[in-house]
């Protein structure tokens, strides 16, 4: 029986992942006079702000000192938060509101397992803070996704074992993290990248709790 649902945020609950990459693109255009290719986005998805910046600097073949690194990460975050200005409940991705209601109707507890330090702020803007029983703090875990830490912390915050939970993700690193935690991975989005998920839906609109419950019972 599924007792907990551990949610990624960006790209699962709201399509804020496009804003993340937009903010990185603007930063890179300004400071390095360069353009980031579309396919780099997948590598920055799910991983922490610092790890995203490392992926980007690596792509650019640039090295910067620690002070510059922090300044670039801060500037990206300021730009990102500005892009979130108009975020509202209408930005919740299709199917998510119903999916959350269905989980609650089954007494399944909800926790946020996002790498984003902006998680609580975004939930507030989406009017979803009360929907979550717990929010795992990415600043308090040792290793970011693809390490399992944030999913383990999210399960712990619900007083549950990861094995009794599902994790919902749109990122390669996120699915790897769920699998490593022992939770049952449910992926949404781009199929070719997410084949390591135990169950996959083409988009959030297709998320189906009955299908997930059946697959979960077979796997357990
Ligand atoms: C993840 C995003 O949810 O959060 C990543 O997929 C992002 O792209 C990471 O780097 C950290 O987010 P933030 O808001 O703390 O910079
Ligand atoms: Mg995501």
Automatic annotation (TrEMBL):
Keywords: Hydrolase, Isomerase, Magnesium, Metal-binding. The record marks 114, 145 as: Important for catalytic activity and assists the phosphoryl transfer reaction to Asp8 by balancing charge and orienting the reacting groups. GO terms for molecular function: beta-phosphoglucomutase activity; hydrolase activity; magnesium ion binding. Substrate binds at residues 8-10, 24, 52, 76, 114-118, 145. The active site is at residues 8, 10. It holds the Pfam family Hydrolase. Its cofactor is Mg(2+). Mg(2+) binds at residues 8, 10, 169-170. It comes from the Bacteria. GO terms for biological process: carbohydrate metabolic process. Binds 2 magnesium ions per subunit. Its EC number is 5.4.2.6. Belongs to the HAD-like hydrolase superfamily. CbbY/CbbZ/Gph/YieH family. This is HAD-superfamily hydrolase. The gene is pgmB.
């Amino acid at each position: 029986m599924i007792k907990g649902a551990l949610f990624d945020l960006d790209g699962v609950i709201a399509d804020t992942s496009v804003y993340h990459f937009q903010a990185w693109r603007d930063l890179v255009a300004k400071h390095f006079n360069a353009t980031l290719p579309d396919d780099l986005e997948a590598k920055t998805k799910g991983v922490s702000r610092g790890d995203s910046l490392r992926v980007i600097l690596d792509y650019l073949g640039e090295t910067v000192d620690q002070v510059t690194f922090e300044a670039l990460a801060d500037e990206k975050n300021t730009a990102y938060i500005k892009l979130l200005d108009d975020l509202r409940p209408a930005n919740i991705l299709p199917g998510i509101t119903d999916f959350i209601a269905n989980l609650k109707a089954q007494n399944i507890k909800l926790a946020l397992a996002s790498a984003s330090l902006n998680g609580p702020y975004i939930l507030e803007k989406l009017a979803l803070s009360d929907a979550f029983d717990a929010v795992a703090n990415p600043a308090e875990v040792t290793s970011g996704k693809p390490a399992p830490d944030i999913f383990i912390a999210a399960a712990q915050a619900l007083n549950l074992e990861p094995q009794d939970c599902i994790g919902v993700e749109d990122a390669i690193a996120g699915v790897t993290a769920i699998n490593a935690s022992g939770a049952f991975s449910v992926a949404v989005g781009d199929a070719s990248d997410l084949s390591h998920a135990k169950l996959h839906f083409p988009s959030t609109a297709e998320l189906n709790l009955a299908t997930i419950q059946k697959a979960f019972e077979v796997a357990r």
